Amino acid sequence: METIRRWWRQPDRYDWLSEYLEAQHLRWPMQLTMAISVAVLGFVPIVLLFSPAMSSTFTNTAVAVAATTLCWTMAAIWLTRWPSRRSSRAYAVLAAVCVSAACLIALPPQHGLTSCVVFVVIAGLVAFTHTSPFLMLVLAIAVYTTVRCGLRAAAGGDTALALSEMMLVLVSILTVPMVGQVLVQLLGADAVNSDVDALTGLHNRRGFHRAVGDRASRPVRRRGALGVVMVDLDEFKQVNDTRGHAAGDRVLTSVAMVLRRVSGTDVVVARIGGEEFCIAGKMSDAQLRHLADRVRTAVEGLPHTVTASVGTASAPRHPATQDALDELLCAADRAMYAAKRAGGNRVCHASDLPVERPESF
Q1: According to DSSP H, which parts of the chain are helical?
Q2: What phi and psi, each to the nearest 5 degrees, are found at residue 32?
Q3: Which of 67, 154, 213, 292 is the most buried (most CB within 10 A)?
């Protein structure tokens, strides 16, 4: 029971896998593969309308057009950007519903049973990227549709053939997602030694330095200094001591999701320590201060009764060396600790701190 409970409560891996693929320079090949595959699938419902096995009714035509529109819309999204978690979930549910409708309404029972194999792809993708409860929702639609098609096919023809085909499809639908989840677990072990933090899906410290360095080599059109926001959770040790490490992990994953949401695009978000996070990107001083305030407010608003001390620093130009970036991080870190010494749950900017003067002897 404990194994099942742990499997049921495991966190969403969508952002983690997205960051992992980006760190391995595999995101664009995956986008292109998915776009081509989904676009080709979009032709299938339209082509089926010309089959003698399909009756030319308004319902069948509506289902085919809806399925094709969904496929081609998602293909366009894959070509232009990496889909958000919400887009991915919406596509998975809509795709499962469209396949179910086509198998139960538009196609003859035997053909519908054969078409249920498409659920293998949908459930496999969900197993890789989303939570176990969401996977069970998709699997419930798939199993229900397969069993209904199988029983209808058995009642109207070769019972043995229909039932054997139904069992083959069911085994595929239930096995592939489980294998997918095992592979993700293996990727998680690999991520420990890569640029991705396995718990939150953010860059780790090494990944942060590499990602900021990669952006330094790109032609940047957006003007502004390189701004750094350092975030440290206040009294986080008490969370682990009083509520357990599992509760602490949930806090960290929630904070990671909040930082992604408030930071926007074209920035690097990382977990660089136990409860320490960092955000870096090209922005003006006003944008940097606004982002820091949003981060503090968003963390305070989480249902975990946790707050954050936030420090910021900026450089006129993108640091050209590792040492220069480390100096910028140290400046943001000093500002963050100044906020913590002032009581926590506040923002402090390095530019507002008094200049440290060397001691005289």
Answers
A1: 2-9, 14-23, 27-48, 58-80, 85-101, 109-115, 118-129, 132-156, 159-191, 205-216, 236-243, 245-263, 285-300, 322-341
A2: -65, -45
A3: 292
Per residue in 255-297, pLDDT (tens digit) is 998 998 898 777 889 999 889 999 998 888 899 999 999 999 9
End-to-end CA distance of the chain: give it in Å, rounded.
Answer: 68
CA–CA dist 125, 92 (Å, integer): 8
Give 170-175's long-range contacts (Cβ < 8 A, gap of 24+).
170/143, 170/146, 172/117, 172/120, 173/116, 173/119, 173/120, 173/123, 173/139, 173/142, 173/143, 173/146, 174/139, 174/143
What are 209's two structure tokens? 């330095």
- Tell which residue, 59, 165, 169, 162, has the closest CA to residue 123: 169
Query: Rounded CA gap, 102 and 142, in Å?
Result: 12
Tell me the pTM: 0.59
Return the structure tokens found at 277: 């996070």
pLDDT single digits (tens) 190-226: 555 577 887 888 888 888 888 887 766 555 445 567 8
Instruction: Delineate the domains of the chain, giving CATH numbers in brackets.
Output: 2-191 (no CATH), 205-352 (3.30.70.270)
For residue range 122-132, what is the model confidence (pLDDT) as tens digits? 988 888 888 88
Q: Running DSSP on this structure, what letter comes out for residue 342?
A: T
